[in-house]
Amino acid sequence: MAHHFENTMVVRKEHLDDQDHVNNVMYVQFMQDIAIQHWSSIAPPELNDEIVWVVRRHEVDYHAPAFLNDELLLKTHTGECTAVTWDRHYEIIRISDNRKLITAKSCWVMLDKKTGRPRRIDDTIKAVFDR
Q1: pLDDT value of position 130
Q2: Fold annotation for 4-129
């Protein structure tokens, strides 16, 4: 079951490249930030002490640029999972004209904080997203 999360942000000067639009690398940072916000909003503290999520792969389609002071809607939801990976999907939309700026997908791996090794995505982890 997909679990949705969204947040807004405003483009600041430090997000811009030399063409005065949001640098493509910043979109990846925004994706990571919204994913972490999503997990942090639903995960119990004891799980945060035990595990960490890391990105295995990003796929990003850029549709239009964002500019200084644009207010952006960042949306994410979970997708398919395997024993050790979980897909996450994203959209970033400029609120003023409802223009879709990017669509993206990431593959995340859950690691055990103590060992640094992949940890199985069991029913306990899946239940966190079903709350």
Answers
A1: 76
A2: Thiol Ester Dehydrase; Chain A (3.10.129)
